[in-house]
Q: What sequence folds into this?
């Protein structure tokens, strides 16, 4: 059937439009479809990585429980190499550092903690810095420990930082400064913090006076 005049004009207009913009539209569609495919591939890849990293982390947990330092380090290094962008890498480094510390392998413990500081998010970094300061305290590297503790931490770690500073100051026999640090830790902790009682004991052991704990509200 022959096209009428209006249909022919519409076809001519479409041909002119496609001739001018057809290639651009095609490339936009190709890019959009490519981006969608890439996103789906990335999601699938991330999910696969998470499953594989989780399985390795389970093996690491068993090695840590068995206090097998050598195996813990091997697995942790494997996780960090293959799954650096996952939380399992940071968790594995902290776990491996703990095992190394308990095995008196302080060099390896420091290496694992430094890995978290260099590669972890702000929360894991704060945890690693606190633990590294503790390792340096054990090595009697008081200046190194205090340098870390005077660095940048997330605000929610303020009490733990002050507590660890108190420990370092006691080791240096700077008792007045240690008392001030423990008092600052108690003020930041609040009465319900799980570390509150221990800090009170440490403060009183060096001749300090802990603030009175608030009385529980009377029963209605």
A:
């Amino acid at each position: 059937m022959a096209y009428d005049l209006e249909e022919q004009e519409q076809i001519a207009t479409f041909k002119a439009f496609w001739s001018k913009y057809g290639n651009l539209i095609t490339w936009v569609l190709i890019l959009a479809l490519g981006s969608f495919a890439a996103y789906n591939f990335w999601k699938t890849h991330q999910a696969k990585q998470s499953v594989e990293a989780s399985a390795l982390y389970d093996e690491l947990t068993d090695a840590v429980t068995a206090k097998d330092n050598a195996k813990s380090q091997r697995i942790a290094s494997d996780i960090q190499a293959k799954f650096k962008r996952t939380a399992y890498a940071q968790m594995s480094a902290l776990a491996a550092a703990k095992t190394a510390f308990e095995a008196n392998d302080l060099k390896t413990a420091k290496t694992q903690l430094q890995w978290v500081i260099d590669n972890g998010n702000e929360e894991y970094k704060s945890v690693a810095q606190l633990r590294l300061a503790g390792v340096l305290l054990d090595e009697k590297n008081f200046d190194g420990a205090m340098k870390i503790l005077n660095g940048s931490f997330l605000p929610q770690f303020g009490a733990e930082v002050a507590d660890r500073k108190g420990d370092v100051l006691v080791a240096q026999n700077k008792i007045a400064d240690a008392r001030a640090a423990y008092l600052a830790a108690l003020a930041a902790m609040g009465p319900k913090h799980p570390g509150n009682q221990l800090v009170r004991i440490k403060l009183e052991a060096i001749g300090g006076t802990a603030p009175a704990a608030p009385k529980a509200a009377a029963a209605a």
Summary: The two ends are 92 Å apart (CA to CA). Residues 36-43, 216-220 have pLDDT under 50 and may be disordered. The first helix runs from residue 5 to 65.
